Amino acid sequence: MVSWNNLDTLTSYKELQALKGRVNVAEVMSGENGAKRVKEYSVPMAEGLVYNYAAKEVDDTILAALAKLAEEAQLSEKYKELYNGAMMNTGEKRLVLHQLARGQQGDPVIYDGVDKREFYVSQQNKVKEFADKVHSGEITNAAGETFTTAVQIGIGGSDLGPRAIYLALENWAKTNGTLKMEAKFISNVDPDDAAAVLKSIDVSRSLFIVVSKSGTTLETLTNESFVWNALKEAGLNPSDHMLAVTSETSPLAKSSDYREAFFMDDFIGGRYSSSSAVGGAILSLAFGPEIFARILNGAAAQDATAKNEDILKNPSMLDALIGVYERNVQGYLCTAVLPYSQALSRFPAHLQQLDMESNGKCVNRFGERLNYVTGPVIFGEPGTNGQHSFYQLLHQGTNIVPLQFIGYRNSQIGMDVDIQGSTSQQKLCANVAAQIVAFACGKEDENRNKNFEGGRPSSIIIGDQVTPESIGALLAHFENKVMFQGFVWNVNSFDQEGVQLGKLLAKRVLAHDTDGALKEYSDLLNI
Amino acid sequence: MVSWNNLDTLTSYKELQALKGRVNVAEVMSGENGAKRVKEYSVPMAEGLVYNYAAKEVDDTILAALAKLAEEAQLSEKYKELYNGAMMNTGEKRLVLHQLARGQQGDPVIYDGVDKREFYVSQQNKVKEFADKVHSGEITNAAGETFTTAVQIGIGGSDLGPRAIYLALENWAKTNGTLKMEAKFISNVDPDDAAAVLKSIDVSRSLFIVVSKSGTTLETLTNESFVWNALKEAGLNPSDHMLAVTSETSPLAKSSDYREAFFMDDFIGGRYSSSSAVGGAILSLAFGPEIFARILNGAAAQDATAKNEDILKNPSMLDALIGVYERNVQGYLCTAVLPYSQALSRFPAHLQQLDMESNGKCVNRFGERLNYVTGPVIFGEPGTNGQHSFYQLLHQGTNIVPLQFIGYRNSQIGMDVDIQGSTSQQKLCANVAAQIVAFACGKEDENRNKNFEGGRPSSIIIGDQVTPESIGALLAHFENKVMFQGFVWNVNSFDQEGVQLGKLLAKRVLAHDTDGALKEYSDLLNI
Question: Which of A357, A381, A469, A479 is catalytic?
Answer without folding.
Answer: A357
